[in-house]
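Render this sequence as a predicted structure.
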Amino acid sequence: MIKLCAFSDEAGSSISEQIQALKRNGISYTELRSIDGKNVLDFSIEEAIAYQDEFQNNGISVWSIGSPLGKVDIDVDFDNYCKKVEHACKLAKIFKTDKIRIFSFFNAYDKEEKVYRYLTKMVEIGNKHGVLMCHENEKDVFGDTLERVLKIIKNVDGLKFVYDPANYLQCKQLAEETLDKLHETTYYFHIKDVISQTGALVPAGFGDGKIFDLVDKITDDKVLTLEPHLAIFKGYSNLDKTQMKHKFVYASANDAFDASVSALKTILLDAGYVEQDNCFVKA
């Protein structure tokens, strides 16, 4: 069985816009990154409680905290930074999720032992709170290539892994190789596709991410989180200073979000799945 999730802030900034977009597309999970342009790590406990009540009242569950933890220089004051990790874990408990998406630090290629030590500490903090830390491959962090992700897998016990096909492609990694080596060890997948030659972000199946193959290889229950980046969404420039490229133009963020969902659902249907009760099962 496959369940769909989404970074719903790509459909709209407010929580009501995000809930409407998820409901409209038959998606019951969100990977929570921001609301009203405010990053999830900056939520107060009171704000988190109020947001969780609204999600719950509308039948939406937070699958994972889509945090930017680890998107900092490796020479950060790590003891102080761990306070952010602790806060993220407290938020996860409020949002009734046991998963936090994290990264593996900038300017860290030549400091791998430090990376392993910091990631291990983050895992230990998560374990204390009953929360899984889930590492996403991302350009310019230590774990951006197949080789270095395999090193992290070997050296950091208890860490889970998120696979983002477009991020690998943007680091000149071939989808055939990364899928072959990492599919089995992936805890959940981000669905984002890109045309390698131009760098243009496109709906799933329109690029070189081999999204059909990714889906076709799934043999157990999985969650796929849509993170299409088909339209500029508020808050992106605060997290990533690079300019996104697009092939298709959409009238609104909602149109882009709906197009991304439609493209993934088409792939699922082509792979032999049928949609039932907000999930996909093999026909």
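Summary. Residues 112-129 form the longest helix (18 residues). The radius of gyration is 18 Å.
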